[in-house]
Design brief:
The structure is a homodimer. By secondary structure, chain A is an alpha/beta fold. The first copy, chain A, has 13 helices and 12 strands. In chain A, the strands form 3 sheets. Chain A has a 5-stranded parallel β-sheet, with helices on both faces. Chain A has a 4-stranded antiparallel β-sheet with strand order 10-11-9-12, covered by helices on one side. In chain A, strands 6-7-8 form a 3-stranded mixed β-sheet, covered by helices on one side.
């Protein structure tokens, strides 16, 4: 943050009070900057205002920054409307696609110097103002997509908005953003759905035998169909290219498996699995580091109120810092298993201490799959 | 459990003291049935014995059930050897592939009436005796693959072994088992690896922007390359067929996206996402039910020892039963977010109570993606 950029945004108008718009309103309000809110649905607007996201505005007044936080399909129209009104110094949006929306905005023949698209990389599976949180964007990346037409002051406004929301502004071109998000978000969504679709015709009692491997891999398949159809439809070229890479890997696996030749199969399978580990090693773990080699300790947790709290109190009592935690319930199983991630040199001590306390403990980790 | 089946297995010999073999030894020993152990690696054998999984046996003696718990590639040979020795009433294995191993065993021209393959559907990412746990199989399915050649007594022995390990025996033909596991386990493994492979060439600082969506979807890509190459190589036909379904879905998405026609894209994307939700609805949630609509409450957890324990103690203090828990760390973020799953009618009360205690709470859930 350079001194001339900090505190430059003194008023914000938010169009659309769903999860993202309301969360921005809560964060900006918490930073002491006045916020006005608009939504075509009066009940949603009232709810966002009641939560403290800002003051409802019947008509848009002057604002340093207008944030358009509506579904992708309606973004360009709302951005164009606010740029024509001339009441805002800067207009931005927060959609997870950029290049196609920019074209749509350009086609309205508005002057683009006061516009910069943005994308806070954060979200929840739930939607609506009640799912909002002031800290939704804390320490997350907020991609800022300046173009050749953007004035430096406009870019600075959007970066200041991101900082008001405690996010990290990251500059990227609209095309680079869309290429990246295709791989980090849009393709994983489609792959998770295709994988879950492959068990849709199986009897539920057979699918019930699945462990946490299939469950984790398909979690994204719970997402909202309409929103994701809009997102992917607005980024067709980059998604097609990235998805073709994955489909190509799977196709080469199918071809190899169909040869029935053990040597061929082993070579191709080993290749994909090895490359997968290389990709996985680039994913962030806790604190933005690479996935750290925490040692894990598995403990059986009885299914009654407070049992997990007792366990974690015991861990804290033994002065071991819990780095991560995962709770696993097996199908038909009354108890759960808590997988505690701790520093490797604390593992043996923790196992011994918890066993002495009477917990059922095993070294190692992860759930059935 | 019928009375004549319970307690029929009075001695067990386990070949291979890795994660699964040692866990079986621990469970059977805990049930009071004597266990002998064998492993070609003396140090691993000694470790399993020291953990209480059984008594090392230099030579295989007579045993009601011999359990072959070695990697898939070596199973048939070990099973054949023990069936020829005539010291065991019943011989079984615990590999995650069945039909091809059965063919390999048949090719040794041993009499198959004393053999039934089995597969306890449980595991961990770690391997070796130190990752073993007596309750690894508790309430899990243990698939028992009887064939036309199997004597009822042999099937009963393997089912009794499963029950000694607190698992639920589930009968299935070897071919049905392999078809099912291809979809529930082998294909998810390959898809997760192919998806992770698709980010292997991106700069790590860009991959670091990914949220938990990509992380969950690719978690399986951390698995052991050699073991999984063996498993998939031993189930090529079923994996090829199931994988072709997924690759076909992805291929039709690529084709639709490449048309650039919005109507076509929306129709095909909507179709895959909708079908994915249908498949996902069949996956087990807690207690073997379908995924239950727990209400979720998100709480910021400071990064210091005991903070999570304090939170869970507070939850228990407000007499709310925690149904599930997930802890999320964002890249670069010093604090974590705990996502608490509770009964829907407890949500509002818990939010109010935790806020009154000073926690930073939001309704709704799930991590950034």
């Amino acid at each position: 943050v350079t001194p001339q950029d900090a505190g430059r945004v003194r008023s914000v108008h938010i169009v659309g009070t769903g999860l993202i718009g309301t969360s921005i309103g809560l964060a900006v309000s918490a930073a002491g900057v006045p916020v006005t809110l608009a939504d075509r649905e009066p009940s949603r607007l009232a709810r966002a205002a009641a939560l403290g996201a800002g003051r409802p505005a019947v008509e848009a007044g002057a604002a340093d920054v207008v944030v358009v936080a509506v579904p992708p399909r309606s973004v360009a129209q709302e951005v164009g409307r606010h740029m024509r009104s001339d009441l805002a110094r800067t207009v931005t949006h927060v959609a997870s696609v950029q290049a196609e929306l920019l074209l749509e905005i350009e086609s309205q023949e508005v002057n683009l110097d006061r516009f910069v698209g943005g994308h806070p990389i954060a979200g929840r599976e739930q939607s609506g103002p009640d799912a909002a949180a002031a800290d939704l964007f804390r320490d997350r990346a907020w991609v800022v997509c300046a173009t050749a037409a953007s004035r430096p002051e406009t870019v600075a406004d959007v970066e200041d908005l991101a900082r008001l929301c405690l996010a990290r502004p990251v500059r990227m071109s609209p095309a680079d953003h869309d290429e990246l998000l295709a791989r980090l978000s849009h393709v994983p969504q489609l792959v998770a759905s295709a994988l879950a679709a492959a068990v849709a015709d199986l009897p539920a009692d057979l699918v019930a035998l699945a462990g946490s491997g299939l469950r984790d891999t398909t979690r994204l398949a719970d997402s909202d169909v309409q929103l994701w159809t809009e997102i992917i439809s607005a980024n067709p070229t980059a998604v097609a290219r990235a998805l073709d890479d994955v489909a190509g890997s799977l196709g080469s696996l199918v071809t190899a498996l169909e040869t029935g030749d053990r040597g061929t199969i082993e070579r191709v399978v080993d290749g994909v699995l090895t490359r997968g580990r290389a990709g996985r090693a680039k994913l962030p773990g806790k604190h933005g580091q690479r996935l750290t080699p925490w040692a894990t300790v598995s403990v059986v947790v009885p299914d009654r109120p407070g049992a997990l709290a007792e366990l974690l109190a015991a861990v804290a009592g033994h002065e071991v810092n819990l780095e991560d935690l995962r709770v696993e319930h097996a199908p038909g199983q009354p108890e759960g298993a808590a997988e505690l991630a701790v520093a490797p040199d604390a593992q043996a001590r923790l196992v011994a201490a918890l066993r002495a306390d009477g917990w059922s403990v095993s070294i190692g980790a992860d759930a059935a799959r």
